[in-house]
């Protein structure tokens, strides 16, 4: 056994780099998709550049390539820091990095050519799904083995969220992708409305456990860290955790309101979506109140600004989500751009902003620098991102309500007042504003990538030293049944 | 829905409510205060030696 032990930040740095690169790529594809909606000729009549093909590349790129890399990197960082131990199975951790990059690259290289299952957020075909399953199980092994080697008896709450994220996403991915391969193509083992229900059980829980539980793990570590305050209420975080993971699983059917799904299943989805308000707002409040005593940081610290706005948008978009799950509200919003506004206030507002805030908090530490290379670039990024976000969601809210009202308007004789084409013409200006918002968000990501690249100069030149794990002279008694046993004390 | 099935559903809902309230009571037990306070401070102190030297994190 070595007398000293250092944190494994190498794999964290790789994920940081991957997140920055995929963030730029995924959002650039999103900007192209937004431009095509305003000016369809921008697909240049090339099949693999059409909206239908690149839309999946945008969603997969930002959720799984950008978000996934950020989640895995921060997860490895947080598990080590909150357990005071080195990451378990270093080589397997490296495999999870290269395996994940290979999987997302393969997915994004095959989907534009029509090699897809046509399941939203689960587009990759069976051979990529198998690779994802292997990488994901390895990720779980590294994470839980690291927890098992911890030197702090209690498992910090951020790790609970990361653990739920890993277990639930593995379960969702495997069940939803059960299929019979016939060539590069496969056919799902489910059919009809059962297939739809399984898909949206997966789809909604991808939001729940990938885009919420995982990023809440990030929030519960990096928000108190950046605020330099204790978490506002640790016990409240436990109640929210159990409420969130037990309720979210049943809300998926709200994606299928007014469909062939049995009516009572739709109502169950609606009811659970309303109950979800409690843990969602609870976590948002816990994060925001953690800034009590440190609100002055908002004047000077762009990372803290990103985090606070992320929490505000988490509260706002989850409230909006619960409201849109109410059948009568959904009858206006469904199939309109309101859904697009809701998704993007959650993804650009909550997910991207908590990720960017956390990366700015983690990067200097992982790269062994006192601070990011450029403070002004962080400020610029914050304002570009915030302006882009607001332009995007306000434009899409306006477009969505316009569409919803035009589609349901009827003349006294019962015929429709507007043609579908009339609604497309009405929302075209909003599509141009959305493009502008997207360009600002993308520009901000380029600024962040530039900033990270310069912050990483010393790391690239191999001038940095590993950070030592603080190992106490006398460690507490290990928890019963802790396996493998914690590493011995120093000396 | 048959009456028997309705009773099963009712009992399951009651059990879920009780377990939720139970988790809430468990989390608020004074017994946890020392550990929870220490855990709440863990991220802000990050990986400094002081975090361990002060004890409390067990």
TrEMBL record, chain A:
- Coiled-coil spans are none
The reaction(s) annotated as catalysed by this protein in its Swiss-Prot or TrEMBL entry are: 4 Fe(II)-[cytochrome c] + O2 + 8 H(+)(in) = 4 Fe(III)-[cytochrome c] + 2 H2O + 4 H(+)(out)
Entries under Pfam families matching the protein = COX1 (PF00115)
Ranges where the Cytochrome oxidase subunit I profile domain occurs:
1-491
Q: Does the keyword tRNA processing apply?
A: no
Report the enzyme's class at the first EC level.
Answer: translocase
| Needed co-factor(s) | heme b; Cu(2+)
Write down what this protein is called: cytochrome-c oxidase
Species whose genome carries this gene: Steroidobacter gossypii
From TrEMBL, chain B:
Q: Which Pfam families match?
A: FixQ
Q: Which domain of life is it from?
A: Bacteria
Keyword vocabulary terms for this entry? Membrane, Transmembrane, Transmembrane helix
Q: Where are the transmembrane segments?
A: 6-29
Q: What name does the UniProt record give this protein?
A: Cbb3-type cytochrome c oxidase subunit 3
Q: Which organism is it from?
A: Steroidobacter gossypii
**Species lineage:** Bacteria, Pseudomonadati, Pseudomonadota, Gammaproteobacteria, Steroidobacterales
